[in-house]
Amino acid sequence: MTSNGPTEFTTTSDLAARLGDLARHLQEQVNVEDTLQSIVESAVHTVPGAAYAGLSVVQARRAMSTPFASAELVREVDRAQIEFGQGPCVDALYEKHTVSMPNTACEQRWPRFAARAAQLGIGSMLSFQLWVADNDLGALNLYSHAAEAFTPDSERVGLLFATHAAVAMADAQQLAQLSQAIDTRDMIGQAKGILMERHRLTSDQAFTLLVRASQHTNIKLADIAEYLTKTGEFPASL
Question: Is Ribosomal protein tagged as a keyword (predicted)?
Fold first, then answer.
């Protein structure tokens, strides 16, 4: 997906309306993956100067990846950041601020990455850390073929966009975790029911039996419950 970037916002009301539409659009997404893909696609049409966008995440403060992007070119550029361990996204992830690379042709902070990005046709980049309540979630990265594509207005709009995106991302992840917790609770309840009926146990006794099985096999309680509900038996390792 490519774009020449959105039109500059002429009034604060225009920007507020666009961000309001963004918040509603992100809230309508049905899962975390759809929310994150919508963030990168919406960024291209919201932040002045952006032709492409990507969402990078880091696990255990080590392994960076870009699972969501508006085009494959984004992943190629980010693979160079990962390979060289340098670039605006890397700094945005770890140093908690907005990072701009106005011109890849004369960039001195990340020489190896800048040279590779220029070879790939990228002239400038703008990166924002996504965070909520001091929790690092990732970085929103914007790309343009042109040098000096991102203006002070791009940074202003991008920072507001990133704030909305971070909240939507955190909410989506929280809902996914809640849904998983509910599914796990229901699975354990079904497993308890099987044991209660089969062995004439109370609810507490059945739960204790599941916990002991988990401890004895070093298998997660939820996995023990799922196996029991699907097969009617405890794992063979018991």
Answer: no
| Between residues 204 and 32, the one the model is more confident about | 204
Helices 221-231 and 152-199: angle between axes, nearest 10 degrees: 50
Q: Are residues 64 and 116 in the same domain?
A: yes
What are 69's two structure tokens? 């992007």
Task: Note whether 103 and 142 are same-domain residues.
Answer: yes
Alpha-carbon span 138 to 90, nearest angstrom:
10
Residue-range definition of the domain harbouring residue 47: 17-178
Q: What are the structure tokens assigned to 19, written together?
A: 């961000």
pLDDT at 121: 97
Does residue 12 lie in a domain region?
Answer: no
My answer on whether 188 and 107 are in the same domain is no
Q: Which one, of 55, 52, 53, 119, lies nearest residue 84 by Cα?
A: 119
Per-residue pLDDT tens over the stretch 148-177: 999 999 999 998 888 878 777 776 656 555
Helices (H), 28-151: 32-46, 72-84, 88-95, 111-119
Average pLDDT, the chain: 81
HSE-up of residue 151 (Cα within 13 Å, Cβ side): 9
Partners of 236 in the β-ladder? none
Any idea what the CATH number is for the domain that residue 195 is in? 1.10.10.10
User: Are residues 85 and 36 part of one domain?
Assistant: yes
Show which of 138, 155, 178 is a domain's final residue. Answer: 178
